[in-house]
Specification:
The chain is about 45% helix and about 15% strand. It is α/β, with parallel strands linked by helices. It has a single domain, classed as NAD(P)-binding Rossmann-like Domain (Rossmann fold), CATH 3.40.50. The longest helix has 24 residues. It is globular.
Length: about 240
């Protein structure tokens, strides 16, 4: 029996990479999934097709996570189409910019924190509309506990998401809703920009001996949104092969 049968999930930024893996994994577990995308509708529809092929329902909705009105519309459209919401996975991310603090521009800083603001208001919508017993998972980064030069603004915008989540867990716990964050390490996606020497160094530091894959993160998300994880909330869980 599918563990998420009949559940309705929103997975933001799910047309590719980690988000796609999460959406398809939840679909295989029986959840009906709202796939969101910014510009690549064709890729989003591929994910919808894959979820439907697994036996679940899915729709694609275009959402710019920098636009609060569009975030509110996403939740309204989800409720209109499926009649409820049980799971929110905040995966959408903007451009990750790594620069020395002395060199970071205001525009670059704002570009990252605009998405963080969007995550906050997506959490607000979930707090208002998610069903009792629901599950909320947001993605952060292991960089919040493994500081590197040039990573200040990036790690800062992710650390804020962790704090949004731990506070929200205390606000909605009385309704049986769990709120957690997952912090991946370096993960093999089409957005990974590292040379082979850097990859080898990261692998050498990772006890499990390889880089992460999107499905590794998706499996961790699936665990946290399952019924079995009903006693896990307010936690920041690292899915990174043990690198930190």
């Amino acid at each position: 029996m599918s563990s998420l049968k009949g559940k309705v999930a929103i997975v933001t930024g799910s047309s590719r990479g980690i988000g796609r893996a999460i959406a398809e994994h939840l679909g295989k577990e029986g959840a009906n999934v709202v796939v969101t995308y910014v510009g690549n509708r064709d890729k989003a529809l591929e994910v919808v097709a894959a979820i439907k092929a697994s036996g679940s329902d899915a729709i694609a909705i275009q959402v710019d996570m920098r636009n609060i009105a569009e975030i509110r519309s996403l939740f309204q459209k989800t409720l209109e189409h499926f009649g409820k919401l049980d799971i929110l996975v905040n995966n959408a991310a903007g451009k990750n910019i790594f620069k020395l603090t002395a060199q970071m521009t205001e525009e670059e800083y704002d570009a990252m924190f605009e998405i963080t603001k969007g995550v906050y208001f997506a959490l607000q919508q979930a707090a208002q509309h998610i069903a009792d017993g629901g599950r909320i998972v947001s993605l952060s980064t292991s960089g919040t506990v493994m500081p590197i030069p040039t990573g200040g603004a990036y790690s800062g915008c992710k650390a804020a998401i962790e704090q949004f989540s731990t506070c929200l867990a205390k606000e909605v716990g009385g309704r049986g809703i769990t709120v957690n964050t997952i912090s991946p390490g370096v993960t093999e996606t089409d957005g990974l920009v590292l040379n082979q020497e850097q990859v080898n160094q990261l692998i050498a530091q990772t006890p499990l001996g390889r880089l992460g894959k999107p499905n590794d993160v998706a499996s961790a998300v699936a665990l946290l949104v399952s019924d079995e994880a009903h006693w896990i909330t307010g936690q920041m869980i690292r899915a990174n092969g043990g690198i930190v």
